[in-house]
Write a structure and sequence with these properties.
This protein has about 190 residues and is of the alpha/beta class. It has one domain: Glutaredoxin, CATH 3.40.30. The protein contains six helices and eight strands, in the order H-H-E-E-E-E-H-E-H-E-H-E-E-H. Strands 1-8-7-4-5-6 form a six-stranded mixed sheet, with helices on one face. A two-stranded antiparallel ribbon has the order 2-3. Strand 5, helix 4 and strand 6 form a beta-alpha-beta unit. The relative contact order is 0.22. It is found in: Cell envelope. Keywords: Cytochrome c-type biogenesis, Disulfide bond, Redox-active center, Signal-anchor, Transmembrane.
Length: about 190
């Protein structure tokens, strides 16, 4: 009897709704699970570096995790038909304009699109920083355990050692992102 009660309690806990589970069951054909805007900051002694990777930008240049060391770096995971990605694009352009002169590197990580689609998106929103062509998932896999694999958009702030200092899962808010960047720049 006690075992049956514990089993029922355990199963009821599994059936509780959370926002990601609701999205997965929605059947709305958007083909991604959007984050909820959760912001996570990591203390210096809790930060993880990325796994080794070499990604290819849409212009053909190769970038590895070693190229990210020495500068604060922003990695934004996106694709063109993602509605929250379209909403946050103008904020990313503003942040890039503000922080690139201070040495902050910005990279998009496009997880789905062909080159022409990605370039059209970037032209529409005035994005001038480069994006990885990550349809093969190399950059995303290097962030395993840091970026949920099906949550787009997601944005990482890497410190000058190439470690993740902050993560936003879902559409970013410009003021919050500005603070996250300023914090790690001041270190």
């Amino acid at each position: 009897m006690v075992g049956a009660g514990l089993l029922a309690l355990g199963l009821s806990a599994c059936s509780q709704d959370d926002t990601l589970a609701k999205q997965a069951r929605a059947g709305d054909n958007k083909n991604y699970v959007g984050g909820d805007g959760t912001v996570t900051e990591f203390a210096k002694d809790q930060r993880k570096g990325t796994k080794d990777f070499t990604g290819v930008l849409f212009d053909g240049a190769q970038v590895s995790e070693k190229d990210l060391v020495g500068s604060v770096t922003i990695l934004n995971f996106w694709f063109a038909s993602c509605a929250p990605c379209r909403l946050e694009a103008p904020e990313l352009v503003k942040l890039h304009t503000e922080f690139a002169p201070k040495g902050v590197k910005f990279y998009g990580v496009n997880v789905r699109d062909e080159k022409a689609t990605a370039e059209a998106f970037e032209k529409s929103f005035g994005i001038t920083y480069p994006s990885f062509n990550d349809k093969d998932g190399q950059v995303l896999l290097a962030m395993a355990g840091i970026v949920p694999p099906n949550s787009v958009p997601a944005t990482l702030v890497l410190d000058k050692q190439g470690r993740v200092s902050a993560r936003v899962v879902g559409e970013l808010e410009g003021g919050t992102m500005r603070t996250l960047i300023q914090t790690v720049l001041a270190e």
